[in-house]
């Protein structure tokens, strides 16, 4: 049997299992995630599906943008991501594909979800998902996450060139969320709670390691910290084991941002901390 270009492409795809990372706010209590995985595998049976998370707080685009932020740092450069937090599904038919200079590919509604990918990974190319070949023929307006975002990711994983998903857009066409930055105010470092560690109750702020270093605050420095009416004093620790059980600590989380925690306790629950609360600190 003669070897055709299609055969060669199919063989190459089987030999290389493309990674398709899924991030959604669907949860795991029903079949939504399973349906999406089945559809991806129906289009690209060789795909290696990775669950980034399905526990984004429903409709919370800001949180989703934080959960997908570090994906380009840890996944292989040719990984594909389908990201769905789509509050206006069925009304807003505006989903995009984005490629980074590192080679990662992201599919998401154009609602700000990719804000931090744009800021930290950069944009090599962005396109509107409009081509019929990468969208499901029958669109269910309540499930655009499946019919547009997941479908496009699956087709590209199966070999459809990125350039064929739809018309090219300008970087300025990408919807971006407003993001707060830490500042120095009257001798205090002022930031905010950016994300809560849902499993452990740790509090992750938007105050970065680099910003603390600019203020000459290093590990071991004694910190005075105020958040939501709670005041605490603690050295800036490297890790939890440097603090007694149940005691508070400040540390640099794996996301490179200042974290607040109780060693083997739930800091957020104990002090009623929510995302957006102001955090103030200074070295004593």
TrEMBL record:
Pfam family, one: SAM_HAT_C
Keywords: DNA-directed RNA polymerase, S-adenosyl-L-methionine, Transcription
Presence of keyword DNA damage: no
Identification of the protein by name: DNA-directed RNA polymerase subunit delta
Record-annotated S-adenosyl-l-methionine hydroxide adenosyltransferase C-terminal domain positions: 191-280
SUPFAM superfamilies according to UniProt: Bacterial fluorinating enzyme, C-terminal domain (SSF101852), Bacterial fluorinating enzyme, N-terminal domain (SSF102522)
All copies of domain S-adenosyl-l-methionine hydroxide adenosyltransferase N-terminal, residue ranges: 21-166
Family to which this protein belongs: Belongs to the SAM hydrolase / SAM-dependent halogenase family.
Cellular component terms per the entry's GO annotation: DNA-directed RNA polymerase complex
């Amino acid at each position: 049997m003669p070897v055709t270009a299609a055969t060669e492409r199919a063989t190459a795809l089987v030999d290389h299992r493309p990674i398709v990372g899924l991030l959604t706010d669907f949860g795991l209590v029903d079949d939504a995630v399973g349906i999406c995985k089945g559809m991806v595998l129906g289009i690209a049976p060789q795909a290696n599906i990775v669950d980034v998370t399905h526990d984004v707080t429903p409709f919370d685009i800001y949180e989703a943008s934080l959960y997908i932020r570090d994906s380009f740092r840890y996944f292989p450069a040719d990984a594909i991501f389908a990201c769905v937090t789509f509050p206006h599904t069925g009304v807003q038919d505006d989903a995009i594909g984005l490629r980074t200079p590192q080679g990662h590919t992201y599919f998401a509604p154009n609602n700000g979800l990719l804000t931090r990918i744009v800021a930290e990974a950069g944009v090599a190319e962005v396109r509107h998902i409009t081509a019929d070949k990468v969208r499901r023929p029958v669109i269910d307006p309540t499930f655009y996450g499946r019919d547009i975002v997941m479908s496009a990711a699956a087709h590209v994983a199966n070999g459809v060139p990125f350039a064929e998903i739809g018309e090219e857009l300008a970087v300025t066409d990408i919807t971006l969320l407003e993001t707060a930055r830490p500042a120095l105010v009257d001798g205090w470092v002022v930031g905010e709670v950016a994300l809560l560690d849902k499993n452990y109750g740790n509090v992750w702020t938007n105050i970065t390691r680099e910003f603390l270093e600019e203020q000459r605050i290093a590990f071991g420095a004694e910190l005075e910290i105020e958040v939501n009416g709670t005041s605490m004093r603690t050295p800036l620790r490297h890790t939890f084991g440097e603090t007694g059980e149940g005691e508070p600590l400040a540390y640099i989380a794996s996301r490179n941002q200042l974290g607040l925690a109780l060693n083997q306790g739930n800091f957020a629950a104990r002090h009623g901390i929510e995302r957006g609360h102001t955090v103030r600190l200074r070295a004593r």
